[in-house]
Amino acid sequence: MPAKGKHRRPKSQRFTRSIAVAGTGGAALALPLMGAAGAHAATPTAAVAQKAVAQKAVAQKAVAQKVEKTATAAPTAAKKVAATKTYAVRAGDYLSKIADEQNVSGGWKKLYSDNRSAIGSDPSLIHPGLKLTIGKKAAAAGATQSSTKTTTSAAKTTKTATAKPASIATSSGYTLPVEGATIGTGYKVAGSMWSSGYHTGVDFVVPTGTTIKAIAPGTVVSAGWGGAYGNQVVIQHADGQYSQYAHMSALSVSAGQTVTAGQQVGLSGATGNVTGPHLHFEIRTTPNYGSDVDPVGYLRSHGVAVV
After folding, report:
1. Where in the chain is the domain with CATH 3.10.350.10?
2. Which pTM does this prediction carry?
3. Where in the chain is CATH 2.70.70.10?
4. I need a surface site. Which of 174, 249, 273, 288 has the fewest CB within 10 A?
5. What CATH number does domain 85-148 carry, 3.90.480.10, 3.40.50.1820, 2.10.109.10, 3.10.350.10?
């Protein structure tokens, strides 16, 4: 009996421990399982929340960018409208040079048109210190344009009807150097931009590429680059006088060549020191600068009408 009792007691103890271990193990096993289930259940919720936060941040950034873009658009537009400035003419300046340096859209003609009230009727007469508006049409010029638009059309019609064909050689064998051109700057007009202090010839207003003709038979004494005169031709005539044709874009003759009245000697242009395309024409007593005489008087003395 005691032996059996001893036998039962250990068995009972082992059973108790077994339950405790099982209980402990069950609790230990239950807790991780519950934790794992909880973590698994929380993961989708956290991901959704994070995604919502990210989407909100993106939306806020887009709104901020739109506000910033709207805020900067108005100043940029205002700056574009107000992109005008004043330029003070310096010694050695001329309109085409200023237009090139200041990137004037429309070139020297636009610059002259915008500042005609300040410059005057002759675009070649600009002096140091003169203030030019760049980028916006001068108010006086704008007012003049609207008031003269109708009369310009009428004047153009009248001019077409009354223009004289001045390119035909006269009985004396002389002709005008260009057809139907008017004089822009006359002879001996004073100005600081000319070395002699005055204009030594006359300027015929013609577009680039206009045919330039010898005024009378003669011999070409020089044809090439003439510094401030650009591409030029000088011809000696039978009476001992010399005619000069300057600022040409192209030359058609060479030194030593004999030419006839009305023969093409080149094409007009804007080479050298100029404000725009035209023909600078001189009559000289020698082939050199400084021996000029009145070119209009000379042509008229040979029966050529100059308008």
Report:
1. 85-148
2. 0.48
3. 182-301
4. 288
5. 3.10.350.10
- Which class in CATH covers the domain with range 182-301? mainly beta
Structure tokens at 174: 């002389």
